[in-house]
Amino acid sequence: MQDVSPKRCSLSGTASVVGGCPDGGTDGEAPIGVATVPGETTDGSGQAPSAGSVAPPATASHRISTLGSGWARTSVNAPIFRKDALTSDAVEQYAAWYDDDAQVIVARRRLDEDAWTSQATGFSGRARDAHNTISLMLDGDGYLHLAWDHHGDPLHYARSLAPGGLVFSPPEPMLGTDEDRITYPEFLALPCGDLLFAYRHGRSGDGALVLDRYAIATRTWSRVQDALLDGQGERSAYWQLHADAAGTVHLSWLWRDSEDVTSNHDLHYARSTTGGTGWSDVRGVPATLPITAGNAPPVLAVPPGRNLINQTSLTADPEGVPAIAFYFRPAEGAITDIHVLSFEPGTGAWRLERVSRRGTDFELAGPGTKSLPISRPQIVHETRGRQRWLHVIYRDAEQHDRAVLASSERTVTEPTWTRSVLPGGPLDRWEPSFDSRLWRDHDRLHLYLQRVGQVDREGVDDDYPPTPVRVLEVALPAPRAVTPP
């Protein structure tokens, strides 16, 4: 294990204005940049989008390692909301998954090697429900934190007994309060070495986002927010979190008014520069806590019934300017596609761009885990000298259920998106998850890769055999030559 010397952690401070208007705006003004759904989106060229080709995989530039085999009768090992499936320091990488007996397996390797060492933890989960995922994260002292098997259930949490070790403590509480009905648990690593832990307390259509913090200085958990996003008994939020290199925590979410995914509506954004204690909009205007549907205007107004998918993903550039990836149907009669909504500080507006170019539509409806022709996307921001890039990863049935990488250079006048198929073959109902620490700290994009099945509405394909668990190290597009100033 590498000896990690984390930055000093802080729970207090003044929220900074990042990504606002050139004049910084005025305190007390209503949030700006609220986007509306246009009748037709473009890719920035001014032309209406049309179906486009996707380049074949360039396998020679990518690297795949195999860890073992895993449960594939549902998508429990490969939904979008695993935070994380993979986690790393500068030397070693760790992974977790369910094997075909629904046992929780953890594994470790050196980042410069392909061989993995795996071990059963003694824990198990109800892998027949795809909500009951495993989340794994490394703290700044090198201890692994593990949460698994949650769909409205009491907390299942353990910590490794030693830094970098694969042996865990017995299950233990964090705080013991509001830990009885947990869904969508996720860890977020802060640059200082501390962790945030977020989860829904309640149920779909009636839940609140709880936020806890683990301090490596004391090796204890504390409550940050009892209800950061509060559905007030009428709805629940579906969120994603991102911590940038400066420690700012970015949050995007939508609201769902019932268990039916058709009731998803409106995209929202907030940020915290204080470790989650205080929140503001993109201009730094303080948010009222708890955040509710009534006190936080959307950044993109989307009515129910527009195939807006829950669990958006988001990223931010080095200045903290956010970009959100999701899919929806922008207008009646349009095709459901991956989109990116990014904030433009120069104009104070949010810009909507179509990323995928699908030729067929589908209906997003009903409760439970869905079996869908397109996955929810992940998005990352990359800086290469003076160049800035956005990369979006998703799976598409129109590309034979293979993983697709869409990339867009942002330092050109009119950004466009190029798409290429990643190696790894058909993945059926896989959704992307990546090693967030490795990407943030070392600019290396590693994806958890596994072909998995999923029958609609929590169905199980008992004839689906176990499949290889793999890690794909993605080689990103070559940078454009830049003439020195």
List keywords for this structure.
mainly beta, Methylamine Dehydrogenase, Chain H, four-stranded antiparallel sheet, 485 residues
| CATH topology grouping | Methylamine Dehydrogenase, Chain H
Tell me the CATH architecture.
Answer: 7 Propeller
Sheet bearing the most strands, described?
5 strands, antiparallel
Going across the biggest sheet, name each strand in turn. 9-11-12-13-14
Radius of gyration: 21 Å
Number of strands: 28
Q: Helix count, per DSSP?
A: 1
Structural category: mainly beta
N-to-C CA distance: 42 Å
Shape: globular
Name the poorly predicted regions: 1-8, 10-34, 36-51
Give the proportion of residues in helices: under 10%
- The H-and-E topology, N to C, reads as EEEEEEEEEEEEEEEEEEEEEEEEEEHEE
CATH class: Mainly Beta
Mean pLDDT: 88
Describe this protein's structure.
It is a single chain. The N terminus is likely disordered. This protein has one helix and 28 strands. It has one domain: Methylamine Dehydrogenase, Chain H (7 Propeller), CATH 2.130.10. Helices cover about 0% and strands about 35% of the residues. The chain is globular, with a radius of gyration of 21 Å. The protein is mainly beta. The strands form eight sheets. The protein has a five-stranded antiparallel beta sheet with strand order 9-11-12-13-14, with no helix packed on it.
